Amino acid sequence: SPVIRLMLMQILADAPYQFNHRTLPEPQYDFIVVGAGAAGSILAARLAETDARVLLLEAGGPAPPETSVPGLMPLTLGADVDYHIKLNTPPHLQQGFQDNSSFLNIGRTMGGGTTINAMIYCRCHKLDFDSWANQGNPGWDFESVLPYFKKSERYTGIVNPNTEKYHGRDGPISVGPVSFNSTATEAFLKAGRELGYDVVEEVAPTRSGFVLQLNTIGAGVRQSTAERFLRPNVRKSNLFVLTRAPVTKILFDKNKRAIGVEFFSNKKHRQVRARKEVILAAGAVFSPQILMLSGVGPARHLQEMGIKVLHKLEGVGRNYQDHAAIYNLPFAVTDGVTNSIFDFLSPKNLVDYIKQKSGPWARPFGVESPSYVKLGDGPLDWPDVSVPLMNTARSNLGLIVAVSDGDDLSLETFDRLLGPLKGRDTIAFVPMLLRPKSRGRVTLKSTSPFVQPNVDPGFLSHPDDEELLIRAIRFSFSIANTNAMKAIGAKWLSKPLRGCEQHPDTSKSYWRCFTRQLVSSFYHPSSTCKMAPSSDPMAVVSPELKVHGLKSLRVVDASIMPQIVSGNTAAPTFMIAEKAADLIKRDWGYPVYPPS
Ligand SMILES: Cc1cc2nc3c(=O)[nH]c(=O)nc-3n(C[C@H](O)[C@H](O)[C@H](O)COP(=O)(O)OP(=O)(O)OC[C@H]3O[C@@H](n4cnc5c(N)ncnc54)[C@H](O)[C@@H]3O)c2cc1C
Hints:
Elements: H1 2-11, E1 28-34, H2 38-47, E2 54-57, E3 85-86, E4 103-104, H3 113-116, E5 120-121, H4 126-134, H5 142-152, E6 153-155, E7 173-177, H6 183-194, E8 199-200, E9 209-211, E10 214-215, E11 217-218, E12 221-222, H7 225-230, E13 239-242, E14 247-252, E15 258-265, E16 268-280, H8 283-293, E17 296-297, H9 299-304, E18 311-312, E19 325-326, E20 329-333, H10 341-345, H11 347-356, E21 367-369, E22 371-373, E23 385-386, E24 389-390, H12 411-417, E25 425-429, E26 432-433, E27 441-443, E28 454-456, H13 463-480, H14 483-487, H15 508-518, E29 519-520, E30 553-555, H16 570-587
Parallel strand pairs: 1-2, 1-16, 2-13, 6-7, 8-9, 16-30, 17-18
Antiparallel strand pairs: 3-4, 5-10, 7-10, 9-22, 11-12, 14-15, 15-16, 19-29, 20-25, 21-24, 22-23, 23-26, 24-25, 27-28
Residues 34-40, 57-60, 77, 105-108, 112-114, 116-120, 122, 246-247, 281-284, 286, 290, 523-524, 557-558, 568-571, 573 line the site of flavin-adenine dinucleotide (FAD).
């Protein structure tokens, strides 16, 4: 639209760097990093702090200008910069979506997920990391990883003496509180207090309660890892970044040592060698795909695909975890309490963004504030459910969903769930499981590296997950029924879903039916190259992130999480990359200055 064009012209100074080298100057590098996403961009930049020669190969292209404007985030979903993978779910699930399944969005561009994500900065919970360590991964407990969280962070918010020690001040990624909240957010936090929860800070190690979220936004501009870690280093002679260069295979010698990779660039398959290591950072779907295409993975599956097994590793692609969510639990609210589309389009707000990078465009559209609560039965005080508030508000235009899977709902479901809200201001809750017990799997669909793999997210395959998600829906209704939310007019108006009408309205059996139809991804795939000792049958990498049984090959991305973290996955992935950089430097005798 003309408005967006005008804005883009104005923001070009802040637009992402156009990494666009076309050929490789050298046949051999010390380190080859595969994937310039959340982890890969950080890792490559940190390794290039030494005198090692580092090659970073990214499948996607440079990030387009609109990705730097936080409020334009929804434009990237389903666009060229998004792999947009149709999930593979069983027929009794996801009937509310077109063709009975929803999409998994994953960034395919410099910065990976950090170029298209909702910019929520989430530290997750102390017990997430303590449990990683307890599963046989020394060095990954909370105390040990905290310095690596702080290392990448530049906190810009107001200092609270109780939580100050958990913030980093000197890292490349600006992190601060949301700049522009709606009346609905205030009501949401008040609702939390009314239900007996504290309003807590995101970085508190045992955070439990309602939270005013932090974002990876600096001076109104998205902080992708490519922008913040690579851009300042592009002139270094030992760092070379190649875009539109998907890696198709890892090359091994006869001793199972990774000696390089094959990749596709300028219409040709090419090879490049690694003197020291190859490091996969292609994310939880594509790192296992590359391993399997290279003959590393579950033997039977590889044989079925006609791939010669170089090294049997049953865990590759298994142990898949995501925060199974109900994206759309929409409630009508009083007009004006949300950040409406008219706020976005008002001339004043446009000018504010163009001139000062402030106002609604300087925040992620639609995303407001999370709550973290424990609704399951475990003994520990460790929240297992999150219910964020989404400020959808596009109802003014008759389009109700914003940053949501609503776009892939079937027409019938859309009409029943969202139709009654047409013309009304709307909020939505997004009840989700923080640590689902279900496990999914990534498998190859083809031996071609250009065909997306199958992603079976395993949603609700463990019965406890269904039970907990129903509790999470009911908890969302408890929030909506508080005085604070009633004061902003929160009302459930949706009609029963087709196929669920036989269940009494809002009964448990109704919510079971609803949950099965609408469970979907929160875009947090993880854990498909599990970090665990080799005694664990699902183990893929060691606590040093080395692939078990192979030499000179590591995986460094969200796939190594033994268990998904209790919150958004980007910041923990930054931490993984920061820690991995020191592990690698130490192994090769480069100076390491561990953060304090
Ligand atoms: C729409 C959306 C919203 C999200 N919102 C949030 C949020 O608000 N907060 C949060 O914390 N997290 C959020 N996330 C999740 C977060 O962005 C991811 O967890 C994180 O980016 C994972 O990092 P990664 O390094 O493992 O993989 P990625 O960031 O996905 O990076 C992998 C990179 O590898 C590249 N690649 C893949 N295959 C190949 C190949 N064969 N050769 C070369 N390169 C390859 C990809 O193109 C990509 O650039 C969101 C994700 C999405 C998609």
